[in-house]
Amino acid sequence: MVLLIMVLSSGVCSADNYVGGIPLTSAHSGTVSGGVYCDSYYGMGDQEAKASNTIEKTFTVPDNANVEWAMLLTNVYCGHMQNNYQGKAKVDFNGKNLGTETLNVPYTYSYNGGNGHVQVNDHVNRVTSDYMMYYDVTGLVKAGKNTAVVKTDPLDSSFDGRIRLVTLVVAYNDGSKKTIWYQVNRGHDADSYYSDDEMNENYIGSTAFQAALPEGSSLTDSKLTLVYQASSDGAYAFNGNALSSGTPQGTFSGSNTWDVKDSLKSSGTNTLTYDRTASFYKNVLGILTAEYTTSSSGDSTDDTPADNTTDNGSAGDTTDDISSDNTTNDTSSDNTTSDVPAGNTTNDTPADNTTDAKFSADLGVQAIKVSHNSAAKAWKNLVNTVNVTVINNGPEKAGSFALELYSEGSLLESKPINGLANGATEAVEFVWKPEDAKNYTLRAVVVPGSTINDANATNNELSKTQEVMHNGYIGDKPLETYLHGTVKGNIIYDYGNSSYVKVSSGDVYTAGHSLSLPEGAIVKYARLYNFWTWSATGSSGVIPSMSLDFAGSSLTPEAEYADQKGWGQYDYPTGTWAYNVTGLVSGSGNYITTVKNTNSDAENSFCIDGIALLVVYEDASGKETQYWINEGCDAVSTMSSSGGLTPDEATVKIAFAGDSIDLGNVDNARLWTTVQSGGHEGIALKFNEMSISGVYDSTPSSNLDIDEARDVTSYLLSQNNEAQIIAPSVTDNSGDYMIPSSAILAVSYKSETTDDTNITDDTNVTDDTNVTDGTNVTDDTNVTDGTNVTNDTNVTNDTNVTNDTNVTNDTN
User: Is the pTM of this model over 0.70?
Assistant: First the structure.
């Protein structure tokens, strides 16, 4: 009998330090004569989100298979990377229920204090938006056809419930004289762009397969199979040799199998590395097989002792190993003060400061770390934090000294340090608000005090090159007033039947508006808004190329507003394009808008969030209405991928300046606001002293969220009114990304007059004249200086009535 000595290996690299994950480690290994069967259902696009889904997958195991070990693995998408969207999954195999799992745990990114994964039970875990379930089905698998059924049901309205993956792995003997060693590694390892963008870390995952083939054996074949979850395949290397990538078989899952005979190490560690090529990637399963012969290959390997199978334990065992591995990577022991002798607790006593004794202490700058709140970034024109770590390398405690921070050679600040024990470190915090987007040189310098003898000055300073960027997610583009005026009439703001649609090269988008104006109304102004987003060619953001027709006329934008993240992944522009359609809207009726993507590149696309039509019309029976029309595009975000921005930094301001408002004569004041990609109850709307949330409730949709005609009468000021739209904190349901794009303030008055005056037909009413009881005041009549005109008096022909006149009781 040939014995194969196996050495188990655990994950050799910690998970993505931003979102977390479970690196792949050995789930089972051994030797067989048949091989390792692996097949999968790859899904998502064929299922309905937020509904019950059932996937039935038939696996055909070789007819002559004698099963040694088998595992069924499935993965269910909950719909959000952190929120607790609740559902359940029922997993059956060959008619036997393996488990009915309740999927109802929240997830917290590692960067925000999470554990890197959530262990639901010993065979179910959650990493970001996915629940993974795996079961030992060794006793249930049979030769020939085997059927797995996975059914999901939502327990709330948000649970997605689509099934990404159903995989069966079977190690089997077939009575042949082949000898095949195998190792199956299982995990739930994520690789996200967050670690690159937020932490400046390029996470490359790895998993190890380690075996010792018998000395003198001859390798005849070796295969490596990988099962992953991503919309784009990853980049791979095996023992340092690049492997080809393929195309996912499913919407968000796929697999690869490679011939690795020429790269396999018959003894020692064989390492597979994997890296994302798009924004997100997960690796869940790796299978390495090695077929070999020896001089005693005639001996059957079917009787391999059970000792050759390893680590068939629960996921809990796996995560324990991962935690142990992670602790070995901790290099921060030099930063702790636990090794400080108790005798050093008396440093910097008054006696120390009143003597001429000098302490021999080697002070050094250990690290400079720059951040903006939770993100390892530095932003232009924002307050950033620079943490400088100083260390006392001894041999004695240090008395008082100073720490200076320079930017581009200019002193930012000098901070006093009141002493430092031998071996201790201290982190000192500075604030830094750079004015330009460029690379800066930061330099931290220790200035020893008069009581310190520091013979080693070489480590007294440290420099760091820090990139400073502009963060396009700040509120830096207020919505400006396009038009301000007064009309005897009203305003219509209509989004018609427009909806969110992706428009690829050559595609045409159509939206319709059905207007109903009062009889006799005259259109004074009409403006069409095209709200677009996610404009890109491939993975590169571009300003869209589009044509727009309205009511049969081809138009170009009168105003183009756009904003863009400006850094990292998903750096795609979004915008509001405004068109003057005053001459094309004549009154009530149906108006059709078509938008065509005119970019010829097949990889180009943009998305339309919606089309809105604004009409200001005159109406003889209407009220005097003062209006402000503000427009623009300011993309703001407080999500964890937004560079640590706070709600204050992600606030969009909207000023309604200009003429004063006669508050005593106001009938009502209404406010319309339009937010692309709204739909978050934590978004706050402020108008002067009013502050409310929950108004952006995905009406008419989350992609074009319009808060219509909100009554703000009670909060109106006589002038300089201001609205603000404020993104929620990242602690409020993960923050939000949104694009405020339009705001309209309309103030209607109680009567036809302003300043307490009824002004018609060029009549001017002045100087405390009292006109009452059926008086008819018309046609340039002049009544002045306290004149009292009463009792059906008819005042006509060039009379001028002005200033505080009281016009009452059937006066015309």
Answer: no
